[in-house]
Write a structure and sequence with these properties.
There is one protein chain. The protein is mainly alpha-helical. The protein folds into 2 domains: about 120 residues, Cytochrome c-like domain (Cytochrome Bc1 Complex, Chain D, domain 2), CATH 1.10.760; about 120 residues, Cytochrome c-like domain (Cytochrome Bc1 Complex, Chain D, domain 2), CATH 1.10.760.10. Helix content is about 40%, strand content about 5%. It is built from 12 helices and 2 strands, in the order βαααααααααααβα. It has a two-stranded antiparallel ribbon with strand order 1-2. Helix 1 runs parallel beside helix 7, helix 2 crosses helix 6 and helix 4 crosses helix 6. The radius of gyration is 18 Å and the shape is globular.
């Protein structure tokens, strides 16, 4: 669905729209999910009900924790950077992220046990629920120097070709709206969260992205450049953001085999050497 974007600054808009994205790393394109049948739509309605229950009260397992305690029932997250915004993401991306936490691709002492406590049907349901939560309020704009926003906007739109860094917009779309289902929505996430994730890649302790490209990008950036692009993207706002309908059935419409994430291993970035396929979440 068409997304209308309202960046904080007119200058940021000009920077994003100016010129083609720099592409120094060939990435596989997203796979278009199969068309939904009436049965698929019925399953999605059931997932929304089930997913809301998991978000509010937790899953069936005794160790399950309600997502809303940290991310909010509407998926808005918070501005501290500890709990990211889940609303506006595609269901498949949320589903895959939970798998990454469970399998160690994204080491996190809080999220790992939460993800492992969810059964497969619960992963699907709660991912579908938060993908449909597209009315969460945006966080307040992050305070920022205009010069820092200019630098961040240029990196987002054009990259840093002299450092081998492609434009953020090449994969995450103009103004960070994402390209469902594989490339996440990053506009409006807190600057602290975005910067922390880039630093995790820079240090080689996070995986889960196509071909480990984000580690290569982050390692080529200075800390100042990471901060600039994080602050810029945190200040981008979407006037209308509706996830693509085809992204609502993460396991069934898109699947996990044959995607960029399951093609091999990420050296030094996949926890205790676990494969990208990741161990299955613990069943109740």
């Amino acid at each position: 669905m068409k997304r209308a974007i309202l960046p904080l600054l007119a200058l940021g808009t000009a920077l994003i729209m100016a010129g083609p994205a720099v592409s120094q790393t060939a990435l596989p394109g997203p796979t278009t999910p199969a068309a939904q049948t009436p049965a698929d739509r019925a399953d999605r309605r059931a997932d929304l009900v089930h997913g809301r229950q998991i978000a509010i009260t937790g899953g069936r397992h005794q160790d399950a924790v309600a997502c809303a305690r940290c991310h909010g029932a509407d998926g808005a997250g918070d501005s501290s950077g500890a709990f990211p915004r889940l609303a506006d993401q595609s269901a498949w991306y949320l589903y895959k992220t939970l798998q990454d936490y469970a399998g160690g691709l994204r080491p996190n002492p809080v999220m790992a046990p939460v993800a492992r406590a969810l059964a497969e049907d619960e992963l699907i349901a709660v991912s579908t629920y938060y993908a449909a939560a597209n009315a969460a309020p945006a966080a307040p704009p992050a305070p920022a120097d205009v010069g820092l926003l200019q630098i961040g906007g240029a990196i987002s739109a054009r990259g840093l070709p002299e450092q081998g860094v492609p434009a953020c917009a090449g994969c995450h779309g103009e103004n960070g709206v994402g390209k469902a289902p594989f490339y996440p929505f990053i506009a409006g996430q807190s600057a602290a969260y975005l910067a922390f994730q880039l630093q995790q890649w820079k240090r080689g302790v996070r995986g889960g992205d196509p071909q480990n490209v984000m580690a290569l990008i982050a390692q080529a950036m200075t800390d100042e450049q990471i901060q600039a692009v994080s602050v810029f993207l945190a200040n981008v706002r979407g006037r209308e953001i509706t996830p693509d309908a085809g992204a609502f059935r993460p396991a069934h419409a898109v699947g996990t085999s044959g995607t960029p994430w399951t093609a091999g291993r990420l050296p030094g970035a996949d926890g205790p050497g676990g494969p990208l396929g990741a161990p299955a979440p613990r069943q109740p």
